[in-house]
Amino acid sequence: MAPHSSPERSLKAKLRAEALARRDALPPEARADGALRAAEAILAIPELGDAPLVGVFWPIRSEIDPRPLMQRLFARGQRVALPKVTKQGLVFREWRAGEELVRGGFGLSEPRDDLPPLDPTALIVPLAAFDRAGQRIGYGAGYYDQAIERLSKNGPVLTIGIAFSVQEIDRVPAEPHDRPLDHLVTETGPVPLRQG
């Protein structure tokens, strides 16, 4: 892992702040409409239909809302798991529509601790910024990078980043441990990813 004060991390922090400011500036109606359109585009990804358990996230702040996607996953018979932040990293537990969530760190809503941990084979990944190489800038703690690495030890994990188009940047300063996402989707539909 790169040191905490590396030039890449400083640049990522700047790019993250700029992208989040653009996201924060979107009107609520555009965010709600965008979440519905992104959900439909994600459902059209063929490989997602093969995942019995999909890891999704509960939105915070001005994040694109994946709850319309969760409703559609339930409607087609797929199960959903939500993450909990622990000292060991993200732990996913199944969530069913209507179940109460508990307050977690970072203002997160998380599944109850008494539910068993499960390993999804597909992940809907939140992000602060992205580029067309499929690289993402997260929120800086590396939780999703670690979760993808851990889950990949069980077999392939389908990763789908979800964001608003205003979060796109020219190039993410990727570090050696960063892994590109398989798909990126915004309110305008799938983002065409360039190879290499």
Structure description:
- By secondary structure, this protein is α/β, with parallel strands linked by helices.
- It has one domain: Rossmann fold.
- About 25% of the residues lie in helices and about 20% in strands.
- The protein contains 4 helices and 12 strands.
- It has helices spanning about 5-25, 30-45, 65-75, 145-150, and strands at about 55, 80-85, 90-95, 100-105, 110, 115-120, 120-125, 130, 135, 160, 185, 190.
- The strands form 3 sheets. An 8-stranded mixed β-sheet has the order 6-3-2-1-7-10-11-12.
- Helix 2 runs parallel beside helix 3 (about 65-75).
- It is globular and about 40 Å long.
Let me know the largest β-sheet: 8 strands, mixed
Gyration radius from CA atoms, angstroms? 16 Å
Could you tell me how far the N terminus lies from the C terminus, measured between alpha carbons in angstroms?
21 Å
- Number of helical elements: 4
Question: What is the domain total for the residues?
Answer: 1
Sequence of strands across the biggest β-sheet: 6-3-2-1-7-10-11-12
CATH superfamily: NagB/RpiA/CoA transferase-like
Helix content: 25-40%
Report the order of strands and helices: HHEHEEEEEEEEHEEE
User: Would you identify the CATH architecture?
Assistant: 3-Layer(aba) Sandwich
Q: What is the CATH class designation?
A: Alpha Beta
Fill in the CATH topology: Rossmann fold
Mean pLDDT: 92
Per DSSP, what share of the residues sits in E-state strands of 2 or more residues? Answer: 15-25%
Q: How many strand elements?
A: 12
| Mass-distribution shape | globular
Pfam families: 5-FTHF_cyc-lig
Region (Disordered): 175-196
Enzyme class: ligase
GO molecular function, one term: 5-formyltetrahydrofolate cyclo-ligase activity
